[in-house]
Amino acid sequence: MSTGFVAGPGSTGGEPPPRRSQIAPIAEAVAILDNIPGGGLILTTVEAALNWGRASSIWPLTFGLACCAIEMMAAYASRFDLDRMGAIPRATPRQADLIIVAGRATIKIAPIVRRLWEQMAEPKYVISMGSCATCGGPFYYDNYSILKGIDQVIPVDVYVPGCPPRPEALIEGILKLQEQIKREPILRQQAAAVLRGA
Amino acid sequence: MALRTEELMLNMGPQHPSTHGVLRLIVTLDGENIVDVQPDIGYLHSSVEKMMEHRTYVQNVALVDRGMDYLIALNNEEVYCLAVERLAGIQPPERARYIRVIFSELNRIASHLVWLGTWAIDLGATTVFLWCFREREMILDLFEKVTGGRLHHVYFRIGGVYADLPEGWVEECGAFLDYFLPRVDEYDKLLTENPIFLARTRGVGKISRADVIAMGASGPVGRASGVAYDVRKAAPYEVYDRMEFEVPVLEEGDCFARYLVRLAEMRQAVRIIRQALRDLPGGEIRTRVPMTMKAPRGEAYVHTESPRGDLGIHIVSDGAETPYRVKIRAPSFSNLYALTEMMKGWKVADVIAILGSIDIVLSDVDR
Amino acid sequence: MLRRKVTVKYPLERLDVSNRFHGLLALPIDPETGIDRCIICFQCERICPDRCIHIEAEGKGKERVLTRFDIEMDKCCYCGYCVEVCPTEAIVFVPHYEASTYHRGRLLYDLQDLRRAAPKEPIARGIVGGGPR
Ligand code: SF4
Ligand code: SF4
Ligand code: SF4
Asked: Which cofactor does it need (chain A) (predicted)?
């Protein structure tokens, strides 16, 4: 088992190269649209429609680390029913858009969290749930085994404070993430990625 | 000559939906049969024993909630407070001791509900998961009204409890118990007669009485194999010696027996809470203990019956504000020990059924 | 089967959290004096198991004023010891829990944030009933 933060065999690298054959026409279309008058507006509308769809179907990975995972389970269960937000838990990172880091991560689990994140398909998001995932929380001082914040290994989009956060607080975090997704210029980002690669 | 196949090593976890946390099982398979299982632990090691040496006795109550088994925060607080009280010779008032019993038994129910829900969902029964969490939320509401927390409470204090029960809570709790007892029968109806459930659990993952004792497994795992040992009866703490309850013991030692024992324990917990609510005396809830308390030089070991088994804590004091050394005897750790013995010879599909049935919590295993 | 609805449609409906709920921390403003009730005794800073309260003050005697009162909300474990030890109930829990952010730095609540977080009325004190301090 590799212990460094190296992508193991089978996992994609940090930023997978876009498949040119598929994305290149989109990139060209984006470039053309952006340069004709009124084209930007069309592009933004298309993006808004796409983003609405993406934001309403965030599929999180079922990955619990510690106590916060119990509150995450409670959020999936009957009372709070996270499925209402279009969040259907997936057991494999390949199908997931979102990883909720629920609980404290040890130094031993950190490379595994990193690998799970790398195995997820772009675009991917991270929610850090609870004090421990955010910065080590109660385990910050006098401790040799807990990672001081999951953002040392993967980039976090939304931080949810609490120990543990109420399920409502987690849902609020997911709503925050939806807002962020809705604002993203997804097509332009993809086009820029293609142009960078070209 | 019999046909032989190569042995196959299969890695389960650390990220696996049914390991209930971050546990890695290295399963050696011969075809579909399990030859050996090696649990790889330490993915949630939070070094809580070391951290407690750097926190004062009072502050540590907040730490045992989280660092030990997180599903049973109140039972952790109870065993820790009992140990410090024995060390420092503090006697909590009567009312506080009853309140502690009520809360640790409520937490036992909540913990068993999480276990039943997640185990059932592993075996394919989603309804049970939703129902169990529905009832669990009601318990959490009861907790929240008194302690202010849902999962982590920091409610028990050395020498008592933090705050008194609010107006009307006792009646509310009684009403919940009346509601809850028929629900246990409902789970019973959903699972106990279910042929799929029976096929997956009855006779599966057997462990003998001798093996259970040899491995040090305790709690429901031990009692399902015929070890009639319950710390609440064997060495009563708090006010358990005044309570009437039975310790369910079965002889089969399979997954189904462990399930039945836990169901019966939920019913017994209801019975204990009812008695405690009935006998709840008035008066003080806390003896005066300074926030900067120092324990005299010495050591104390206290063990209690947590929902997972015999939970013990050993505190050594050198007379300072912080403990000199703390050792936690975690029931999940010993129960995990018995896993290898249970799994040998079963099929790979039984791994999750057997693993779920011993009800481990990884933060208890790793501490 | 279901006699009552279980699911709470969260952003539209809300649960009533109990008045002891350990939500975020706040320094409420005393309506009589117009400032918070903190007497700068450093007890909360000392008891905090996560060492996430940082207090600094200037001046002497009656003149003493808070210059810094930071709580690292991302490190806090919402245990309530600070609320318990505070002799003047200057620091309280508010039954408010929605504080997720895009930046971790925003979870460092300084004096202004803590005063703003306090509800005008009523204040959930967290503690009800006896118990020595
Ligand atoms: S933030 Fe609190 S509840 Fe969440 S994992 Fe850490 S200690 Fe547990
Ligand atoms: S609630 Fe506990 S951890 Fe948070 S600031 Fe107060 S004493 Fe510190
Ligand atoms: S304990 Fe209360 S009065 Fe003392 S410093 Fe803290 S907030 Fe201020």
From this structure: [4Fe-4S] cluster
Q: Which two tokens stand for residue A182?
A: 């809705």
Q: How far is CA C126 from CA A83, A176, A198, B115, in A?
A: 33, 28, 60, 31
- Please tell me the least confidently modeled range out of A22-31, B141-150, B190-199, C78-87: A22-31
> CA B40 → CA A2, A81, B45, B165, C77, distances in Å?
15, 33, 12, 43, 29
Of the candidate ranges A159-163, B4-8, B148-152, B204-208, the one whose mean pLDDT is the lowest? B4-8
With tokens 């140990």, the residue in question is B83
How many Å lie between the centroid of ligand 1 and the Cα of residue A65? 9
Q: Name every residue whose Cβ is closer than 8 Å to that of residue C67 and which is 6 or more positions away in sequence.
A: C56, C57, C58
Q: Count structural domains, chain A.
A: 1
Q: Which residue has the tokens 């003080």?
A: B284
Residue B31 falls inside a structural domain: no
The CA-to-CA distance between both ends of chain A, in Å, stands at: 36
B315 — pLDDT class (breaks 50, 70, 90): very high
Question: Mutation test of the interface with chain B: which of A2, A62, A73, choosing the one with the most B Cβ atoms within 10 A?
Answer: A73
Q: Which residues of B touch C21 (CB under 8 A)?
A: 144, 148
State how far residue A34 is from chain C, nearest Cα, in angstroms. Answer: 29
Mean pLDDT along residues A89-94:
84
Among the ranges given (A21-30, A90-99, A111-120, B6-15), the one the predictor scored with the smallest mean pLDDT: A21-30
Between helix B169-191 and helix B126-147 the angle, nearest 10°, is 170
- What is the C42 CA–ligand 3 centroid distance (Å)? 6
Q: ipTM, 2 decimals?
A: 0.84
Structure tokens at B233: 């009866």
Query: Cα(B262)–Cα(B128) distance, rounded to whole angstroms?
Result: 15
Measured between its terminal Cα atoms, the distance across chain C in Å is 49
Question: Which domains, ranges and CATH numbers included, belong to chain C?
Answer: 25-117 (3.30.70.3270)
For chain A, say whether B152 makes contact (Cβ under 8 Å).
yes
Our count of domains for chain B comes to: 1
Yes or no: say if B313 and B326 are a contact pair by the CB < 8 Å rule: yes
What is d(CA A96, CA A7) in angstroms, rounded to the nearest whole number? 18
- The CATH number of the domain holding residue B274 is 1.10.645.10
Average pLDDT of chain C, as a whole number: 77
User: Residue A98: which domain range?
Assistant: 59-181
Say what the pLDDT of residue C16 is: 77
* Element housing A119 (H / E): helix A110-119
